[in-house]
Specification:
By secondary structure, the chain is α+β, with helices and mostly antiparallel strands. It contains seven helices and eight strands. The strands form two sheets. It has a six-stranded antiparallel beta sheet, sandwiched between helices. It has a two-stranded antiparallel sheet with strand order 1-2. Strand 3 and strand 4 form a beta hairpin. It holds the Pfam family AMMECR1.
Length: about 220
């Protein structure tokens, strides 16, 4: 990570959030998710991997929302970690926590290393507008994220979620998305039409912002 402009100089890290000013419309910001949130996630990860003190509190809103942080790597944008929470968290502490959790503690992957950071892209997803669906197809591809609850073949309650962009990125239709999500949630038996109809589905929308490592470095320099 030697190409990062601030290197190990904490002062530049601590002053790096002074340029953004939210522009409210009718008392509300135009959007919740802004690029500074991605830059903050990179700062948090950098400090963690280099055993530095955490970056100072950022200037963007600290309202509480459910959120996810996603790390991808390389030109192919291969998933490297994605963890979040459906419990509303204040964004400063929530992004600080999940930037690290998704990078280092996603059980599907080995922890991200220092050497991988220059090839990373990070996305912050702010989740809003939760609605209980009438049935398992009561949602729209590309618009809604979905969270399902179901009973496994062993009788235990399981849950799983996909953010709105997952199905379209994979080229799935609704049935393929549901079936993949059931497998993600640990369902191993044959997936039947009756099984799909038994699902309890919650749909939601996501405001997403992304930044590559190069965009992060350019913003910080």
């Amino acid at each position: 990570m030697s190409s990062v402009c601030f290197g190990t100089k904490k002062q530049k890290l601590n002053n790096s959030y002074s340029n953004h000013v939210e522009r409210p419309i009718n008392g509300y910001p135009e959007s919740v998710a802004i690029p500074d949130m991605c830059y903050f996630c990179f700062d948090v990860l950098y400090c963690q991997l280099h055993s530095m003190d955490p970056p100072q509190t950022p200037n963007f809103t600290n309202d509480a929302y459910p959120l996810f942080v996603t790390w991808k790597i390389g030109k192919e944008h291969r998933l490297r970690g994605c963890i979040g929470t459906f419990n509303a968290m204040h964004l400063h502490s929530g992004l600080r926590e999940y930037a690290i959790t998704s990078a280092l503690k996603d059980s599907r992957f080995t922890p991200i290393t220092r050497e991988e950071v220059p090839r990373l892209t990070v996305s912050v997803s702010i989740l809003q507008h939760f609605e209980e669906a009438e049935h398992y197809l009561d949602w729209k591809l590309g618009k809604h994220g979905i969270r399902i609850e179901f009973i496994s073949e062993r009788g235990s309650k399981r849950t799983a979620t996909y953010l709105p962009q997952v199905a379209t990125e994979q080229g799935w239709d609704q049935i393929q998305t549901i079936d993949s999500l059931l497998r993600k949630g640990g369902y191993k038996a044959a997936i039947t039409a009756d099984m799909r109809r038994s699902i309890k589905l919650t749909r939601y929308q996501s405001e997403e912002v992304s930044a590559s490592y190069n965009e992060y470095v350019n913003q910080r320099c």
